[in-house]
Amino acid sequence: MNSQEIDKLLEQLNKEIEGIQPDDEKGQVLLRELSADIRELLERAESKQPATSMMQRFETSIDHFEVTHPELTTALSSLLNILSNAGI
Fold first, then answer.
1. Per-residue pLDDT at 43
2. How many helices (H) and strands (E) does the chain have?
3. DSSP for residue 22
């Protein structure tokens, strides 16, 4: 997957996040962090390599939103899979 395709996936994920209003404080914090992480990845010109802490936040978010927001968790899982397959 090339950089443009990753950017497209990141933009889709960002739109998905914008439409979510979690009821719990942890969910709100996770969404703010996810949004910041996605913006950071989009701003990187060449390397889309996320920091280890960013990958951990993605995984934590998947666990937290798995039941309440399956579309978000599917998109996050896809992103993690793509990054992993790219050796990132």
1. 82
2. 4, 0
3. -
Burial 42-59 (b: 16+ CB within 10 A, else e): eeeeeebebeeebbebbe
pLDDT digits (tens, 9 = 90+) for 42-62: 887 566 666 678 888 889 999
- Do residues 17 and 72 lie in contact, with contact meaning Cβ atoms separated by under 8 Å? yes
- Percent of the chain exceeding pLDDT 70 equals 86
The answer to whether the CB of 80 falls within 8 A of the CB of 54 is no
Among the listed residues 32, 29, 79, 86, the one whose alpha carbon sits nearest the alpha carbon of residue 55? 79
Q: How far apart are alpha carbons 70 and 56 in whole angstroms?
A: 18
DSSP state of 26: H
- Residue extents of the structural domains in the chain: 3-85
